[in-house]
Design brief:
elongated; single chain
Length: 133
């Protein structure tokens, strides 16, 4: 669409012609949203809609550090349950315990942390018991 509008041609017909020609060449069929329904527009207007959409697409989070660490601790518990070896369990617990210990030394902003490091040996014993059952 670098072509200039010729004099004497209305702007609307010039644009319509370019759109029609591009459609005939199939240039719109390669777009990422081609064939997908339009998003629901019945929601109230939000000035930050594009920021929220980008964050959702990229999996970004805006949780305060203390809540993000609580979420990481929950994820660590799920990862321990899915672990296939004792060394993997110990590695997962070691990583999250390091983060929790650092947060306890310098409390993060936001709500109270309410976490303490995992008892590695007790968790490994529980993991072994679940595997043997």
């Amino acid at each position: 669409m670098t072509e200039r509008k010729p004099p004497g041609v209305s702007f609307e017909s010039f644009v319509d012609k370019q759109i029609r020609e591009a459609s005939e060449r199939g240039e719109f069929s390669r777009l990422s949203g081609f064939g997908k329904p339009l998003p629901n527009d019945s929601a109230p207007y939000d000035e930050l809609w594009w920021i929220k959409g980008k964050m959702h697409r990229e999996g970004a989070s805006v949780l305060p550090p203390s809540l993000a660490l609580r979420k990481a601790a929950e994820d660590a518990e799920e990862a321990v349950a899915a672990a296939v070896s004792e060394s993997q369990v110990r590695r997962i617990l070691g990583e999250i315990n390091t983060r929790i210990s650092e947060a306890l030394l310098r409390p993060p902003a936001g709500p109270p942390l309410n976490l303490k490091p995992f008892d590695v040996e007790a968790t490994v014993e529980r993991w072994r018991a679940e595997r043997s059952a």
